[in-house]
């Protein structure tokens, strides 16, 4: 993806808005930083060449604006003395949580996320699945009184993320449902342990960056295109292992953040939520295996749909993937040490 000069400026402001939110001490300043984040992300969803991109940016803006209004109303109810009764306090916390669920695409407000991703570039999708989730997740630290509601949304998000991706052939939709499933895990990580959350979110960032880069460089959008995908055997093996790691298959590095979270849940006797998260992880592994199967078993066909595949970039990609996998292996001894 080629960046224009104004997009580089917006990208810098996008990163600074998260730092501003982390360092904020009031609800209003947090809300302001989230609005600044929204305004600077919209240009990455828009395109003068493709009107479908503009339609997606409009959908995203309307949904996020509605969530921001709910967030502001909830904050006002919790702040004014006239609404100091237990009923109004509870209502304000519920409204704040529902607004955060809507903004991050968690259940029961996940419906907008898969319908939006088909018209996005891989870079915009990467930012939407990772960086744009940080603001609502960080805010969950301040609203942990309603543990039952957060746990319910976490379990339902994980199930929807697992079930929704089973019959998809679009890679963007597969990773969109995967993102919804990972949001379920990340919400519980943020509530129970910030250390586990840091492990999980950094690993998820690395993996999403890896896959979006691979699909962007090779012009891949659907599982069918893997039938004509030609690459080095080492690259196929690395992609396959990385998919299994993202799904949490032991003993790969993606398994350890999930294992650490499940231990915390079992210590709190949250048996049902632990079972739901495990089942959803198995469903995620199933459609990750479909991607790997398409990559490994059908890549020997003689057809080649790609007009431009520079060898140098492929080599750089392999080394980059190996480097990411080497970094991710640090999670294994660190996870064992924390346990």
Q: Whole-Å distance between the termini?
A: 41 Å
How would you state the average pLDDT, rounded? 81
The count of helical stretches stands at: 15
SS-based class:
mainly alpha
Global morphology: globular
Return the string of H and E elements: HHHHHHHHHHHHHHH
Radius of gyration: 20 Å
Our count of domains comes out at 1
Q: Main β-sheet, in a few words?
A: none
Question: How many β-strand runs?
Answer: 0
**Any low-confidence stretches, pLDDT <50, length ≥5?**
299-310
Helix fraction, binned, reads over 70%
Report the sheet-strand fraction: under 5%
Structure characterization notes:
The protein is an all-alpha fold and 339 residues long. The chain has one domain. The protein has helices at residues 5-22, 27-45, 51-79, 86-104, 112-117, 122-129, 131-140, 147-164, 171-192, 194-217, 233-247, 255-267, 271-297, 311-328, 331-338. Helix 9 packs across helix 12 and helix 10 runs antiparallel to helix 11. Mean pLDDT is 81; it is low at 299-310. Helices cover 75% and strands 0% of the residues. The radius of gyration is 20 Å and the shape is globular. The protein starts with a helix and ends with a helix.
Give descriptors for this structure.
339 residues, globular
């Amino acid at each position: 993806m080629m960046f224009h000069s104004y997009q580089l400026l917006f990208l810098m402001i996008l990163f600074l808005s998260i730092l501003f939110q982390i360092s904020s001490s009031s609800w209003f300043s947090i809300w302001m930083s989230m609005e600044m984040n929204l305004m600077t992300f919209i240009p990455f969803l828009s395109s003068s060449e493709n009107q479908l991109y503009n339609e997606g940016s409009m959908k995203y803006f309307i949904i996020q604006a509605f969530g921001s209004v709910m967030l502001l109303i909830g904050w006002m109810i919790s702040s004014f003395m006239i609404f100091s009764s237990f009923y109004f306090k509870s209502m304000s916390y519920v409204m704040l949580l529902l607004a955060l669920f809507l903004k991050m695409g968690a259940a029961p407000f996940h419906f907008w996320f898969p319908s939006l991703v088909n018209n996005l570039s891989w870079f915009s999708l990467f930012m939407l699945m990772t960086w744009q989730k940080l603001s609502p997740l960080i805010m969950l630290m301040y609203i942990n009184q309603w543990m039952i509601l957060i746990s319910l949304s976490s379990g339902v998000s994980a199930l929807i993320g697992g079930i929704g991706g089973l019959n998809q052939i679009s890679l963007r939709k597969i990773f969109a449902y995967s993102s919804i499933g990972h949001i379920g895990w990340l919400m519980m990580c943020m509530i129970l342990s910030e250390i586990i959350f840091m492990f999980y979110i950094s690993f998820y960032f690395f993996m999403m960056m890896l896959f979006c880069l691979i699909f962007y460089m090779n012009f891949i959008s659907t599982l069918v295109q893997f039938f004509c995908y030609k690459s080095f055997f080492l690259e196929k093996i690395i992609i396959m292992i990385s998919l299994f790691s993202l799904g949490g298959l032991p003993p790969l590095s993606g398994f350890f953040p999930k294992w650490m979270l499940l231990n915390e849940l079992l210590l709190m006797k949250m048996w049902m939520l632990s079972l739901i998260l495990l089942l959803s992880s198995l469903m995620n592994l199933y459609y990750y295996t479909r991607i790997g199967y398409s990559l490994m078993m059908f890549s020997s066909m003689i057809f080649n749909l790609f007009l431009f595949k520079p060898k140098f970039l492929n080599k750089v990609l392999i080394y980059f993937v190996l480097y990411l996998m080497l970094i991710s292996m640090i999670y294994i001894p660190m996870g064992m040490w924390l346990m």
